[in-house]
Write a structure and sequence with these properties.
Layout: E1 9-14, H1 25-33, E2 36-39, H2 45-50, E3 57-60, E4 63-64, E5 69-70, H3 73-84, E6 89-94, H4 104-113, E7 118-121, H5 126-134, E8 147-151, H6 160-168, E9 172-176, H7 182-191, E10 199-204, E11 212-217, H8 221-224, E12 234-239, H9 245-248, H10 264-267
Parallel strand pairs: 1-6, 1-7, 2-3, 2-6, 8-9
Antiparallel strand pairs: 4-5, 9-12, 10-11, 10-12
Length: 280
């Protein structure tokens, strides 16, 4: 299918956190008209099956660094540019929202450098999806007035002074992509005497049929769950609002250990860890 754009166009779109019905109408419309879709791993297979034109080429460009599998950002940029220069409508489809903890800046710079038209289509970010599906209002009146979106993957990127501030703030803290460093997060906060009424919510595979929510006191974390291997994606919420889960949860926990988002080596058989080939 050839698009009507003279020089092609790239749509940077968010697919939401898992539940395919959280895809926006605008993103769905672009997917129906796309010539090429560059898709992350954390996108529901239902979206790929039901919302994308059967004539579109789907190229998996997922990242799964823990397994040594990751599409280089340079490759993704090149694929966007090459296809757009062929006068194609390209949708770069990311899990969650495109602007929260993604490499959208690199992609925007590549598009601007090559004079390629683009649009940014927001999606439901993981924090909002996970909080809603867990019954945790992030800024509930009387519990928190602000929320911070954070990620923590290296011990030297956050100063001790900032940990002290995080431990004492009344803000709700939401940690993305931090399940592997969660023990360190808890230790930093408890070392700085975070109040005991601020609970820790661990939400695995949020908004999917395999969603699982665990609530624990930070001072009990090491004893209760520190040895658990969390299933990706996992989101962490810390604050007084987490206590509201018990009263307002509306979705039962799944006990399944199945992956809703399949690992890259299952999406693309015989995948070599050091490189992801372009697969339509």
């Amino acid at each position: 299918m050839q698009s009507s754009f003279k020089t092609g166009k790239v749509i940077l779109a968010g697919a939401g956190p898992g539940d395919p019905e959280l895809l926006t109408m605008k993103a769905a419309r672009f997917l129906q008209n796309a010539d090429v879709v560059l898709v992350d791993r954390l996108v529901s297979n239902e979206i790929l099956t039901n919302y994308i034109s059967p004539k579109a080429e789907i190229i998996h460009v997922g990242k799964q660094c823990r397994r040594g599998i990751s599409t280089p950002q340079k490759t993704i940029n090149e694929l966007m540019v090459e296809n757009a220069l062929l006068a194609k409508l390209v949708v770069r489809l990311k899990g969650g929202d495109v602007s929260i903890f993604s490499n959208i800046l690199d992609e925007l710079e590549a598009l601007v450098a090559n004079d390629i038209p683009y649009e940014i289509v927001p999606g439901v970010t993981a924090a909002l999806g996970a909080a809603a599906f867990a019954g945790i209002p992030l800024t509930a009146r009387g519990y928190a007035t602000s929320v911070r979106f954070l990620t923590y993957y290296k011990s030297d990127i956050v100063t001790d002074e900032y940990w002290k501030e995080l431990a004492n703030t009344e803000d709700t803290l939401v940690f993305y992509m931090s399940s592997e460093t969660l023990l360190n997060v808890v230790e930093k906060l408890t070392t700085h005497h975070i109040h005991e009424d601020k609970l820790l919510g661990i939400i695995q595979q949020a908004t999917t049929p395999f969603q699982n929510v665990q609530i624990v006191n930070l001072y009990d974390f090491k004893r209760q769950v520190s040895e658990v291997n969390f299933i990706s994606p996992t989101l962490v919420i810390i604050g007084r609002v987490v206590s509201l889960h018990e009263n307002f949860k509306w979705l039962e926990n799944s006990t399944s250990k199945e992956y809703y988002f399949k690992p890259m080596d299952q999406i693309i058989p015989n995948l070599q860890p050091e490189n992801i080939t372009n697969v339509s």
